Amino acid sequence: MYELKVYGEFSSAHRLKNYLGKCENLHGHNWKVEVIVIGEILDMTGLLIDFNILKKKLNIILKKLDHRNLNLIPFFKDKNPSSENIAFFIYKKMEQLLKNYPIKISKVCVWENEKQCASYYE
Q1: Whether the Cβ atoms of residue 118 and residue 85 lie closer than 8 Å to each other
Q2: Total number of domains constituting the chain
Q3: Half-sphere exposure for 58 (CA within 13 Å, toward CB)
Q4: Which of 7, 22, 35, 113 is the most interior residue, by most CB within 10 Å?
Q5: Alpha helices, DSSP H, located in 1-122
Q6: CATH code at position 99
Q7: Residue 73: its pLDDT value, please?
Q8: pTM score above 0.90
Q9: Which domain holds residue 47?
Q10: What does the CA dihedral 10, 96, 15, 13 come to, rounded to 10 degrees?
Protein backbone atom coordinates (compact mmCIF):
# COMPACT_ATOMS: atom_id res chain seq x y z
CA MET A 1 0.00 0.00 0.00
CA TYR A 2 1.24 3.50 -0.84
CA GLU A 3 0.38 6.65 1.06
CA LEU A 4 0.71 10.28 0.00
CA LYS A 5 0.15 13.47 2.00
CA VAL A 6 -0.47 17.01 0.88
CA TYR A 7 -0.94 20.10 2.98
CA GLY A 8 -2.96 23.24 2.48
CA GLU A 9 -4.11 26.18 4.52
CA PHE A 10 -6.86 28.73 4.77
CA SER A 11 -7.93 31.52 7.10
CA SER A 12 -11.48 31.87 8.31
CA ALA A 13 -13.72 32.83 11.18
CA HIS A 14 -16.29 30.75 13.03
CA ARG A 15 -18.21 30.52 16.24
CA LEU A 16 -19.34 27.39 18.02
CA LYS A 17 -23.06 27.32 18.70
CA ASN A 18 -24.26 25.78 21.98
CA TYR A 19 -20.76 26.05 23.40
CA LEU A 20 -20.16 27.63 26.78
CA GLY A 21 -16.84 29.41 26.59
CA LYS A 22 -14.84 31.88 24.57
CA CYS A 23 -15.19 29.86 21.33
CA GLU A 24 -18.89 30.74 21.41
CA ASN A 25 -17.80 34.19 20.18
CA LEU A 26 -16.80 34.83 16.58
CA HIS A 27 -13.05 34.25 16.23
CA GLY A 28 -10.59 33.23 13.55
CA HIS A 29 -7.93 30.65 12.81
CA ASN A 30 -5.20 30.12 10.29
CA TRP A 31 -6.15 26.52 9.57
CA LYS A 32 -3.72 23.91 8.27
CA VAL A 33 -5.14 20.91 6.41
CA GLU A 34 -3.48 17.56 5.82
CA VAL A 35 -4.98 15.13 3.29
CA ILE A 36 -3.72 11.55 3.15
CA VAL A 37 -4.55 9.24 0.25
CA ILE A 38 -3.73 5.57 -0.20
CA GLY A 39 -3.63 3.12 -3.07
CA GLU A 40 -1.99 -0.05 -4.30
CA ILE A 41 -1.32 0.59 -7.98
CA LEU A 42 1.30 2.95 -9.37
CA ASP A 43 0.95 4.38 -12.86
CA MET A 44 3.55 3.79 -15.59
CA THR A 45 5.54 6.74 -14.26
CA GLY A 46 5.73 5.12 -10.82
CA LEU A 47 3.26 7.50 -9.19
CA LEU A 48 0.17 6.75 -7.15
CA ILE A 49 -1.19 10.16 -8.20
CA ASP A 50 0.62 13.36 -9.09
CA PHE A 51 1.07 15.62 -6.05
CA ASN A 52 0.01 18.55 -8.24
CA ILE A 53 -3.39 16.94 -8.87
CA LEU A 54 -3.93 16.41 -5.14
CA LYS A 55 -2.92 19.98 -4.31
CA LYS A 56 -5.16 21.45 -7.04
CA LYS A 57 -8.16 19.45 -5.83
CA LEU A 58 -7.53 20.46 -2.22
CA ASN A 59 -7.15 24.12 -3.20
CA ILE A 60 -10.54 24.05 -4.96
CA ILE A 61 -12.11 23.19 -1.61
CA LEU A 62 -9.99 25.51 0.50
CA LYS A 63 -10.81 28.50 -1.71
CA LYS A 64 -14.46 28.04 -0.72
CA LEU A 65 -13.49 28.26 2.97
CA ASP A 66 -10.79 30.93 2.83
CA HIS A 67 -11.56 34.33 4.37
CA ARG A 68 -15.13 33.34 5.10
CA ASN A 69 -17.33 33.11 8.15
CA LEU A 70 -17.76 29.32 8.17
CA ASN A 71 -21.09 29.60 9.99
CA LEU A 72 -22.54 31.18 6.82
CA ILE A 73 -21.55 28.31 4.51
CA PRO A 74 -24.66 26.17 3.78
CA PHE A 75 -23.02 22.91 4.91
CA PHE A 76 -22.58 24.37 8.40
CA LYS A 77 -26.10 25.73 8.69
CA ASP A 78 -27.16 22.81 10.90
CA LYS A 79 -23.67 21.75 12.02
CA ASN A 80 -21.11 23.55 14.09
CA PRO A 81 -18.04 24.51 12.05
CA SER A 82 -15.84 22.62 14.51
CA SER A 83 -12.47 21.22 13.48
CA GLU A 84 -14.12 17.80 13.40
CA ASN A 85 -16.89 18.90 11.02
CA ILE A 86 -14.45 20.84 8.84
CA ALA A 87 -12.34 17.67 8.49
CA PHE A 88 -15.48 15.73 7.52
CA PHE A 89 -16.47 18.43 5.01
CA ILE A 90 -13.04 18.41 3.33
CA TYR A 91 -12.91 14.58 3.33
CA LYS A 92 -16.26 14.29 1.55
CA LYS A 93 -15.42 17.03 -0.98
CA MET A 94 -12.03 15.45 -1.75
CA GLU A 95 -13.72 12.07 -2.12
CA GLN A 96 -16.01 13.56 -4.79
CA LEU A 97 -13.19 15.33 -6.63
CA LEU A 98 -10.98 12.21 -6.70
CA LYS A 99 -13.63 9.59 -7.50
CA ASN A 100 -12.15 8.94 -10.96
CA TYR A 101 -8.67 8.19 -9.64
CA PRO A 102 -7.49 4.77 -8.35
CA ILE A 103 -6.95 6.05 -4.81
CA LYS A 104 -8.88 6.31 -1.57
CA ILE A 105 -8.90 9.17 0.91
CA SER A 106 -7.37 7.73 4.06
CA LYS A 107 -7.67 10.69 6.42
CA VAL A 108 -8.12 14.44 6.62
CA CYS A 109 -6.61 16.34 9.55
CA VAL A 110 -7.54 19.95 10.29
CA TRP A 111 -5.22 21.95 12.55
CA GLU A 112 -6.69 25.06 14.15
CA ASN A 113 -3.27 25.88 15.59
CA GLU A 114 0.13 24.20 15.84
CA LYS A 115 -0.84 22.24 18.96
CA GLN A 116 -4.24 20.69 18.18
CA CYS A 117 -6.09 19.10 15.32
CA ALA A 118 -9.09 16.94 14.51
CA SER A 119 -9.17 14.14 11.96
CA TYR A 120 -11.81 12.31 9.98
CA TYR A 121 -11.43 8.94 8.27
CA GLU A 122 -13.65 6.04 7.28
Answers
A1: no
A2: 1
A3: 24
A4: 35
A5: 51-65, 83-97
A6: 3.30.479.10
A7: 97
A8: yes
A9: 2-120
A10: 20
